[in-house]
Write a structure and sequence with these properties.
Elements (H helix, E strand, L loop, with lengths): L8 H58 L3 H44 L1
């Protein structure tokens, strides 16, 4: 070593310049990619919402399929009409029994007074 001084000042300048350039490049990259990350998150949110709407629509289709139709209501109406007729016949058949029970009650009341 003959006493020469190592001059690193040009290297320091280049390191600082590269550091500044790298910082600038990373800032630009973050600005550019932040929009795509936000869009990706929004797309995921929309996909989840679309899936939930699809599930709800499927449930509504099943419920609609299982609802009674016009034919079912017509059959129900016919059966209720038949049931009403049967009830009227039963009522007519019970009237003589009602009359008998009233006569028996009057007889028992008369016998109880004697």
């Amino acid at each position: 070593m003959d006493g020469q001084i190592l001059n690193i000042s040009p290297a320091v300048v280049w390191v600082i310049a590269l550091s500044q350039l790298l910082t600038f490049a990373l800032t630009v990259w973050n600005l550019v990619s932040s929009g795509s990350r936000a869009n990706a998150k929004r797309l995921d949110d929309h996909a989840d919402r679309l899936q939930s709407h699809g599930d709800r629509l499927a449930a509504l289709e099943i419920a609609t399929r299982e609802m009674p139709k016009r034919k079912d209501f017509h059959e129900l109406d016919l059966r209720m009409t038949k049931l009403q007729g049967a009830m009227e016949v039963l009522t007519e058949r019970l009237r003589p029994i009602e009359a008998i029970s009233e006569r028996l009650q009057e007889l028992l009341l008369e016998q109880g007074r004697k």
